Amino acid sequence: MSPDFFKAVSICHLSENDFKLLGLFEGRNVLIKNDHGQVVLTAKIDAGLPDSLVFIPMGPWANMLVGTETGGCGTPHFKGLEVDVAATDSPVLNIRELISGMGACCHV
Amino acid sequence: MSEAIMIRDAVCSFCGCLCDDINVEVEDGKVSRVRHACRLGSSKIMGHGRIQSPMIRKDGVLVAASFSEAYERAAQILLAASKPLLYGWASTSCEAAKKGILLAEEVGGVLDSTATVCHGPSVIGIEEKGLPGATLGQVKNRADTIVFWGCNPAEAHPRHSLRYSSNSSGKFTPQGREGRKIIVVDVRETRTSKNADKFMRIVPGSDYEVISALRMLIAGKGEILPDVIGGVKKVDLADIAATLKSARFGAIFFGLGITHSRGRYKNIDNALSLVAELNSHTKFVIMPMRGHYNVGGIGQVLAWSSGYPMSVDFTRGAPYFNPGETAACDLLAKRDVDAALIIAADAVSNFPHATAEGLASIPVIQIDPYENPTTILSDVVIPCAIAGVEVEGTAYRMDGLALRLRKLVDSSLPSDEEILTGILESVHRQRQRKANQGA
Fold this sequence. Notes:
Structural class of chain A: alpha+beta
Number of helices of chain B: 17
Number of helices of chain A: 3
Number of strands of chain A: 4
Strand order of the largest sheet of chain A: 1-3-2-4
Strand content of chain A: 15-25%
Order of helices and strands of chain A: HEHEEEH
Oligomer: heterodimer
CATH class of the largest domain in chain B: Alpha Beta
CATH topology of chain A: Barwin-like endoglucanases
Largest sheet of chain B: 9 strands, mixed
Helix content of chain B: 25-40%
Strand content of chain B: 15-25%
Radius of gyration of chain A: 15 Å
Distance between the termini of chain A: 23 Å
Number of strands of chain B: 21
Shape of chain A: globular
CATH architecture of the largest domain in chain B: 3-Layer(aba) Sandwich
Radius of gyration of chain B: 23 Å
CATH class of chain A: Mainly Beta
């Protein structure tokens, strides 16, 4: 349960243009949505990204947006997903909040 | 205070590079200094926050238990299940994997590795086409042209470039980085692309088209290609095709940028064809950048013991393999397993949210040195000693080379192999007890 890991994977990297276009500033969050779910992440500029492409490191936050389908090969479609991005005042959920909806844990 | 002991040339059990030149200083039974390792490997060897005691969930709360109680409860869960999933295995030894396969056979379960959310598509592609491979030593000593496709070793395998690839110097590559041409293909700039002679940025999900276009160009059929393929100008692709053809010894390293994108195993299948065709012109090899240090090892042990490299279903009395049906993510998404043993992996963090939810409704046994999000959903938690730090064992490097992990310090905790043996013995005892009661 390393806080450094959680911090590193609850970030959404955007191009400089997209960052400005969405009216973001340092420390502001973004809400990312698609057909599979939604998640709030800390926005960060990545000068190496082209416009209209966001990068979220693999982890429990990114996985809110990934569907269950594996295309018959066992591996989910983790990359190249279409998402909507907007600035938000909502906070980034912590790991327990993120998975609390899974209804842990009284089956024994 | 006792004098520090220096352990030389230890193997780092973090990533698929399995760097075997690590020097470790041990003082008073603890690692006090790590030399030569990268930041990731060093952090693991130095050690951090561990699970202290086995735990069993009672009335919704994990409470401390003894190892024998945890083994009994784990065995009870596995025996009560009609189709348990035994998942993980990439960050433990081959000896533990062997024991896990025995357990899966005994309880009639499905055994899958973390390859399923990583290089699973590579494994399938390689099964279809075969792998024109090489050792990392051959790449270091011979490769004058190296392609990194959809991978970022500068962040994920920090010593890869210096020890084995772009920046290494070898017998026939004495100039090191200056004597090699480095091409990076990715959808975004990375630290790896900054070290490239040529960075080819492609549109996300267009790997298959771009590989096909390279194959056409190499076959001399470029005239029928459109002017832009996957966001890359044909003229630039032609330049890359010419570079690949003119290599004396070329190597392609590929990562999750290609296995996780549209096309998945077909991308790998196509890349393997590209390499096969390049071998009509020169010498070319290809290699997946395996992540966890022994994800190659579980594939090897499963393959020689069951005939299949991952996602093996032992519920039918004979091994059965059909990814898409027998892979961990498919089984959980379809709620087709009724218990899970997660070892040396964090399924909750790395599976799609709705897939990981499948773990919330079934009993979960976790074997791991560290608390992680999977612990939150677990009903039995068993802490273990770390292979390659506290216990020895065998691991396979990303190029398929087997290396012996060394023990650097003592641990009061049992190894994964010992824990699985303990569960297996409990399975036998409980079965015998039940048989005696029925007799």
